[in-house]
Write a sequence for this structure.
C-alpha cells in the first residue's frame, strides 16, 4: 500500500512536467537583461574616491550649511583618507546602491574632506585651518566618518565643536544599515 504524497520507490521526487518548466525558468534567468554595472568611482587628484553629486564648495562650512538648508537638506561632512579600504567599499558598495544614493541626494548635501588633507577650511566659528587640523578639532579618528549637522538655522559659531553635530557615523556600513541611519537622521530620530 502506498502512502499519499510520497512517490513510490525508484520514481522521481517531482512530476515529469516540472523538468521542462525548470529548464525554461533557468534559460530565462540566464538570458534576462541585466542591470548595467555602475562604473567604479573615480579618484580625484588627492586620491579620494569621488561622486559627481558631492558638494562643490569654497570650504566655508557655515556657507555650505546655509546652502544645504536653503535646499531643505542637512549638511554631511564625509571624512575619508587616501588608500582607505573602507572608504573604497563605501563608494563601490554602499553609495553604488541606487536607493541609498537617491535618498542621500534628496535629503543631504555631502562635503568630502580628507583627514590628512591640507586644504584650508573655514569652520562654523570662522576659524580657518587645514583639513587635518579640522579633523583633530572634531576628534575624527577613523575613516570613513560622517558627521550630520542640524537642519534648522541655529548658529553653530558659539557652540562647542563636539556639540555642533547631531549624529556621527564612524566606520563602514552595508547599504541596508547605512540607509536606516540616513532615514533616522533625515527624520530627526537621532536622540
Amino acid at each position: 500500500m502506498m502512502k499519499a504524497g510520497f512517490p513510490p520507490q525508484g520514481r522521481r521526487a517531482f512530476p515529469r512536467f516540472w523538468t521542462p518548466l525548470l529548464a525554461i525558468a533557468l534559460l530565462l534567468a540566464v538570458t534576462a537583461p541585466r542591470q548595467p554595472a555602475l562604473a567604479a568611482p573615480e579618484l580625484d587628484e588627492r586620491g579620494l574616491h569621488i561622486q559627481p553629486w558631492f558638494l562643490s564648495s569654497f570650504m566655508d562650512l557655515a556657507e555650505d550649511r546655509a546652502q544645504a538648508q536653503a535646499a531643505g537638506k542637512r549638511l554631511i561632512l564625509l571624512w575619508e583618507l587616501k588608500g582607505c579600504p573602507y572608504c573604497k567599499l563605501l563608494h563601490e558598495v554602499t553609495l553604488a546602491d541606487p536607493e541609498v544614493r537617491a535618498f542621500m541626494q534628496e535629503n543631504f548635501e555631502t562635503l568630502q574632506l580628507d583627514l590628512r588633507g591640507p586644504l584650508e577650511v573655514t569652520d562654523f566659528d570662522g576659524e580657518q585651518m587645514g583639513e587635518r587640523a579640522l579633523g583633530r578639532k572634531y576628534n575624527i579618528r577613523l575613516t570613513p566618518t560622517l558627521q550630520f549637522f542640524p537642519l534648522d538655522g541655529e548658529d553653530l559659531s558659539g557652540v562647542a565643536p563636539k556639540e555642533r553635530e547631531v549624529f556621527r557615523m564612524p566606520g563602514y556600513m552595508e547599504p541596508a544599515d547605512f540607509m536606516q541611519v540616513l532615514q533616522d537622521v533625515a527624520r530627526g530620530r537621532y536622540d
Confidence is low (pLDDT under 50) at residues 33-37.
